[in-house]
Specification:
The chain has 3 domains: 52 residues, Structural Genomics Hypothetical 15.5 Kd Protein In mrcA-pckA Intergenic Region, Chain A (Roll); 88 residues, Alpha-Beta Plaits (2-Layer Sandwich); 79 residues, Alpha-L RNA-binding motif (Alpha-Beta Plaits, 2-Layer Sandwich), CATH 3.30.70. It is of the alpha+beta class and 238 residues long. The radius of gyration is 22 Å and the shape is elongated. Helix content is 22%, strand content 29%. Uracil (URA) binds next to α5.
Length: 238
Amino acid sequence: MRLAKYLANQGAASRRKSEVLISQGRVTVNGSTVSEQGFKIDPQKDRVEVDGKLLMPEAKVYILLNKPSGYLSSVSDPWGRPVVVDLIKDSNRRIYPVGRLDFDTEGLLLLSNDGEFANLIIHPRHQIDKKYEALVTGRVSKDTISKLKKGIVLEDGITAPAQARILGYEPEKTLVEIIIHEGKKRQIKRMLACVGHPVEKLKRTGIAFLTLEGLSVGQYRYLTSEEVVKLKAAALNY
Ligand code: URA
């Protein structure tokens, strides 16, 4: 991370003022004065001091949120729509969503300030399972479930083999569970629309071994360190 950004993140000064502090030679990294603006540091390892005062290394946080419908998976919105970080009341860190759910999708969303972790979880190569419950229009047949499992041709390519099953029927609707590890844009909605069953309501109910248990809509909790280790292992053991 660029040194000035780190100083601003840690609350040492505004971004602009942090650049001034650097050019004035008031910032040291691991004991040496740094006056180069583009200097990059590792926030977890490097010792950064301003006027001889140590900035505490940034603690990593990992949050599991049950996102309500009507929130953007973003840190801010130019049009002032509600964003998921508004729901995290007790964190003053710069956290951001790990992956995304559509504005009208509900369910599990991770948030963190750990970029490496975010890359691990998001990258389809790491095959983290994401489980969804979709309420769709019409009665889904077994044949359609087979198609969803095999792969659906979307305009940006064929979807990877998935798991799919019918959870139940309502009059003129079906509740379907699908597990995928890709993250194509609006993938579940597009897959189901493609087989003639538009999604009316979508909820993410699982990310790897994480579930919605204990989290009502809008609630969140911090992951335990064991869960973080297990998630990283799940991503790396593909
Ligand atoms: N697939 C979708 O269509 N929407 C989401 O929010 C997540 C997966």
